[in-house]
Amino acid sequence: MKEILDAILSTDSTTADFAALKLPESYRAVTLHKDEEQMFAGLRSRDKDPRRSLHLDDVALPEVGPGEALVAVMASAVNYNTVWSSIFEPVSTFGFLERYGRLSPLTKRHDLPYHVLGSDLAGVVLRTGVGVNAWKPGDEVVAHCLSVELESSDGHNDTMMDPEQRIWGFETNFGGLAQLALVKTNQLMPKPKHLTWEEAASPGLVNSTAYRQLVSQNGAGMKQGDNVLIWGASGGLGSYATQYALAGGATPICVVSSPQKAEICRKMGAEAIIDRGAEDYKFWKDENTQDPREWKRLGGRIRELTGGEDVDIVFEHPGRETFGASVYVTRKGGTIVTCASTSGYMHQYDNRYLWMSLKRIVGSHFANYREAWEANRLIAKGKIHPTLSKVYSLAETGQAALDVHHNKHQGKVGVLCLAPEEGMGVRDHELRERHLPAINRFRDI
Q1: Per-residue pLDDT at 445 exceeds 80
Q2: Residue 444 has pLDDT above 90, yes or no
Q3: How far lies 148's CA from each of 78, 156, 271, 306, 313, in Å?
Q4: Beta bridge mates, 57
């Protein structure tokens, strides 16, 4: 790996230099082991410890197929799908790999007794496969996590509709929490030049997800003047939704769980903030019974903050815990746009408040290539900023995943892979200097 890293760190390396690099037979990667699928059987979700299930192993270098690229990963990040994988919930990801492996002789590479995780990366292209013209060795890139086959007509208006749509590093192997990663080249996008490797790696999944969910016509189609209720507004996903609402002329109503998280939202420019911890909202009386009085109390608080208006859009991702309240507080004709369900997938709500008030529930899942490209372009132009709060080494990925699992983090948690230290990879220092306070918002709390 030393020769690869030396070439990346050199200012004189050319495409030919990268193409001539000898590739190693193996590389270091964060993995799950198939023979440990039942290691947490009988434990509550919160008691499942990713530090036990995530391993740092030497794994074999995969073959680069047509339309693919091998990327030297300088930095990656932890997402909730990393946590779900690590605790084998709601299902073991090895089932995904087995099904993908049955698709073709080429995809059989993914069905292994180990799973290399990670759905974000920033790095440098080392090799490209047959049929690749847009990317070449030496290109500095970030990757979005949509993996598609596009052999069906279903995906050609919106690639998220491809029947073979998968999330790279979650439903495929050879993910970004590693020294090297294998991606399809239609996952690649230019690395924002004013960001470090770890900053550039952090927005990918959550930034693109928030863009589709809130901005795109495939999601809520937010417009100027909309009131947008954002759950977990300082978190990995909500922090981008907050930025998109502010940048797009909408009013975010930010729901957070502590004064510290409220302060982060203020630093982003939000003014309407609900600290649900301080205001003690309890949407469930017990495991099976919700409390509509708490929905009503939340609705009243929202109207206090908006001058008497209800919300046009609810940016939903907690799921079970909040969904009944989300449906209730949305204005007549408004939209609840939902993904993830981090507090539980089985949602319950009173349908009278949906059907009689002509509200819509829109499911949103990641983003297509165009949406991801537009989201990355906004990062590159300094319109939207990374929300990186803390950086771990590759060997500390288990601890990073535990912090995310227990919601001890702010924004996004980064992981250094090949990068020897933080702060490397900046190419446009002038643009960086203009936006440095915004880039560091989540580091300064």
Answers
A1: no
A2: no
A3: 22, 11, 40, 42, 29
A4: 29
